[in-house]
Hints:
The complex is a heterodimer. By secondary structure, chain A is α/β, with parallel strands linked by helices. Chain A contains ten helices and ten strands. In chain A, α7 links the parallel β7 (about 165-170) and β8. At the A-B interface, α2, α3, α4 and α5 of A face α1, α3, α6 and α14 of B.
Amino acid sequence: xxxxxxAEAEQTPALVxxxxxxxxxxxxVLDRVSLTVERGAFVVLLGxxxxxxSTLFSLITRLYDNVTGEISIRGFDVRRRPSQALQRLGxxxxxxxxxxxxxxxxxxxxxAALHGFAGREATRRAQQALELxxxxxxxxxxxxxxxxxxxxxxxxxxxxxxxxxxxxxxxxTVGLDLGSRESVMKIVRDLVAKEQLGVLWATHLMDEVIRTxxxxxxxxxxxxxxxxxPQLLTLTGTSSVREAFRTVTGTKTTIDEAA
Amino acid sequence: xxxxxxTTSPGNISAMYQDSEADAHRRLGIAGYFACFKGIVWREILxxxxxxxxxxxxxxxxxxxxxxxxxGFRQTLxxxxxxxxxxxxxxxxxxxxxxxxxxxLFNAMQSSLSMVxxxxxxxxxxxxxxxxxxxxxxxxxxxxxxxxxLLQAYAFMLVAWFWGIEPPPITDVKLFTFxxxxxxxxxxxxxxxxxxxxxxxxxxxxxxxxxxxxxVIPAIxxxxxxxxxxxxxxxxxxxxxxxxxxVMNFVIFPMFFASSALYPLWRIREASPALFEICRLNPxxxxxxxxxxxxxxxxxTVSLAIVVGCTIVxxxxxxxxxxxxxxxxxRRGGPGGAA
Lengths: 259, 339
């Protein structure tokens, strides 16, 4: 992609997490976690509930600060330069974050305002982002009228409005039916291909991983594997991500049961 | 600027709006702050207008007090002439400022609970990932809540006006100062024997009949800010979404009843000196008095100082609690206990 920014800046990864540990009291939730999300990469963060995924997300989104290690978004440290870092970050939280009683457009404009956009500029960005997820024609309907999958798509549109370099999704497909799950995943994967977006996709659903993804297995706060899917399968001598996960983590139960 | 136009295809946002660094700086400049502030306040108002039950209950609650409670007590409670009143007033007129303060209190506590709820559903987290400084975001949210409270207060004053309860015409805006230091202060603060009234400016004739409705605005905003920042502080401390009854029993009722909202303080002193001292320690008393004097075109200096002081303390504590590195959220482990 042609751009005015230098080639070097273009290479700066969307997200770098380096040696991050975190404890709540005596309980260590993350232990020296390191991972990188390159631009245009789709990275799946696999882990059971309670593995530390949400804590890691809280640290990246700066709900609270990382005490050890480093987290940077496009080279901006979230602790030292939070404003620049957060400007380049889009998040889809696990729980719903849109107002049901407001229209799609009202919701979108609120979030545009949170990034400093107002007036026509906000409307234009909202409209374009809704087009991106195929909901532009429903802009003036209340969110309540949408299905669960469509609400998720609104949230993706919302998080893309300020054109972030990094998109975090925390269990974005939880509670969706198969069709909605597929459409949500397709939208995000398309964005990765088209926008040079770096995506960190946290999930406990093994079947959401495809062969070209990078997989990070987080278990009890420790990263057990970080690399491409084929290599994971070769390494563990298994034929599916599900089996590989079980081998790596040593969990007996199947992951979906545990979740 | 952009050389990506060639790759434009429908649905490709980067080609549609290319953000340069300069753009990014601009949108976080003054205009960006203003857009963000406006967006947050507007969302509070929109949400409020969509919750009809909330609007109704906020209106009905003080009206019940006004029409039933005050009507009943009117005969038993005589209000003597105390500042800012210059004649005997009906009990309804006396409790109206207290009821306005009650609206502010309920509104603040409700929004505090909704913030705890927001924190669990993720709305609060969406607010906090905005690139603007966190203290600015929290203050904007607070002011949004105050705007909603102001709307509610005016709806109440309108109904009260139909009932014949309205502030008197105001010819001059005055500064009122009187302080009777509590006994436990041990003479550390000098007492004032007589109130001192200083004229600030006179009100143009055509505004005089309804000037009270205007001069009360700053008082409502300040009192709303104080109660709102207290609520904000509470929202960072309350771990889980607790039921409203708990907040009602332990915060709203004690604050409301142990104040000058329903009875003048000198009456309380006659009944119980201990309760009188408690009322004087209650910041809500000063919120009520600030509004009471505001309706009469007067600024009660002591109440003003206490309300402003409490606002600063509560707000600083709330910002501290939401601070990512020092805050209570970090120490306690996740929003709403999510791990």
